[in-house]
Amino acid sequence: MKVRAEGIENRQAVLRIEVEPEDMEESLEAAYHRLVDRVNVPGFRRGKAPRIVLERYMGKEALREEAMGQLVPQVCDQAIQEQNMEAFAPPQVEILETDPAVLKVIVSLPPIIELGDYHKICLVPQPAEIGEDEVNAVIDELRSRHAWWEPVERPASQEDLVTIELEERQEGGPVLERQEQQYLLAPGYPFPLPGFVEQVIGMEKGEEKEFTLSYPPDFRVEELANKQCYFKVKLVEVKGKLLPVPGDEFAKSIGEDLETMDALQDRITTNLTVLAQRRAQRDFEQKVVQAVADLAKVEFPPVLIEREVENFLAELASEYSQDERGVENYLKSIGKTEADLREEMRPSAIKRLTQSLVLGKVAEEEKIEVSPAEIETGIDEVVQNAGERVEEWRGIFSSPPGRRWIERRLLMRKTVERIVEIAQSSTSEENENF
Asked: Half-sphere exposure of residue 405, counting CA atoms within 13 Å on the CB side?
């Protein structure tokens, strides 16, 4: 076997491997012995057909394909060892010639991470502040949630709840009748068709109206796309939403041992402040992680980017697993293909991958470890919200792969806490110097 290294770029080494004719012949002979025991050749007992007969029966290419299936991994492993390389992922192989075999092998090498002087990072977290507008927005939401509907004697307007009698006929189809149907006049609501709400707004009780709307070109039922639908609507009743007046009585209606409006506002302010502090802490942590990553020099093979893109796609699939539309319909709705989505995900994948590699290197430098007891606590925290599936989840996360996932998660958490501590301590030291 002859091996020639043709260069290293982007943490990928390119090898050209030429298999010696005698090695190729030895592999073909081994392939013959494997196949002859599995293939029934007419006129011969299994395992007794000569090689030349087997080749005629199956074809030389079938024998060569069997031989290459065994030969390629062997010569690749041997070539990588001879070049003193460490393969970080299965090599990519292109067969340039088959008689004798000549291979082009791309070997993904381990990433290189050179940390900068992250101990000099000096960052200050931003205070979490809650404004009066945010408190009022929550109060308005609570008022809307506790509102009630009351009949009104006026034309229907936005956000009213109306009762209608509806006749609907698709182009070329039968008439569908719906009696006493309640309908919320939310602007832009696409049911039964875009524009329907706008046609009903302004109608008065007892009024009848006929109009035509068209199905959108990208309607989910393709045979209806661009077709017309005829509507006849009679407005039976209009109800307006009545909001409770802010005050002590409203606060009491919320519950939670609230007696006054001031107490409700204080409770909302406290809850919003806690959420804002958590959000500010997450933002600050991400800022510190990015600062450490910006100081580092990181090189990694493209295969890792593709893996991270796959992770993003898996997360998206999980997000849509309970949605009847699914990922494919989601992509169709936004007018994109999976290839488009993959390309859009690449910058985020590179960023997340870089940060992950840098944090792993920081963990090594800082000698951060996760104890078995911490892993057990981590498992408890993960499964506590599993409901009736607690034991199932505990079995999953107690398995070796599950424990490694928990360990990795905790290691990253502890590493982030460490670099945040460094960034804040640097700030304190800088302030002391003044």
From this structure: 10
Beta bridge partners of 9: 12
Strand order in the sheet with 101-108: 2-9, 12-18, 101-108, 92-98
The Cα-based distances of 158 to 184, 191, 232 in angstroms read: 8, 15, 20
Same domain, 154 and 98: no
- How many helices (H) and strands (E) in the chain? 13, 11
Burial class (CB in 10 A: 0-12, 13-18, 19+), 304: buried
Task: Kindly report the average pLDDT of the chain as a whole number.
Answer: 90
In a shared domain, residues 44 and 177: no
Domain containing residue 412: CATH number = 1.10.3120.10
Q: Provide mean pLDDT across the span 260-283.
A: 94
Query: Which residues, in sequence order, are CB contacts of 43 under 8 Å at separation 6+?
Result: none
Single-letter amino acid code for the residue at 78 = Q
The pLDDT value recorded for residue 423 is 93
How far is Cα 248 from Cα 258, in angstroms, rounded to an integer? 9
Map residue 151 onto helix, strand or coil.
Answer: strand
**Is-above-0.85 flag for pTM?**
no
Angle at 222 between CA 173 and CA 341, to 5 degrees: 160
